[in-house]
Amino acid sequence: MAIPADNWNFQKGDLSGYTHQGRVGVAQELRGLVNRKYLPFSSPYMAYIDDPWSADSTDGTRTQSRHLAPAWDGGGLQIPNRDGTLTFAGDGAYLECPQVVAQRGQQLCFWYVFIGCDSLDCNDFALLELRPPGAAPERVLICDIQMLERLNPGKPTQSREWVQFVYPFAQDFSGDVRWVVCNGKVGLPGSAEALAWPSSLLLDNIQLL
């Protein structure tokens, strides 16, 4: 399986061709911070990875319901920060495209919006993971709260507009491609705060060029 030829920009209105865990879905419109409206980049639908819209409005904890998928546990991820500290993953979600094959020199391209819904010390993040079988995954940061703070000082939870992300393959690749979103806490593994106010990654227009 490769990037789904019939659902590379979620034009089918579902997640066929992908696997996922946590609160992941497709939408035609979403509301972000300060009631900002988000529309798909190119098709009638976009994917969202993790779901701040189902969080409790008072404390940010996830609303539990039989209609909502349980959160993914974050897989014990630890992400290095620019200042030498670590961000420890809390809960989150991921979307995966299995069995992608790419040749050296090709590029994985997609458009995204990262909606940060937490404070700077929590540092929620979105990652691209390339997962060849039998080998450690390669992880590339897409965006995090600290990046939003650098772009918009004093407003770390402000989200970006649609941004293109390009990953160049330096060598042949065969494996799964995963987009990960997690709550994060700087320097404090297992902090309860890392489980509140989930952020989200909007995703559209995935291509292997």
Automatic annotation (TrEMBL):
Protein name per the record: Uncharacterized protein
Species in which this protein is naturally found: Meiothermus granaticius NBRC 107808
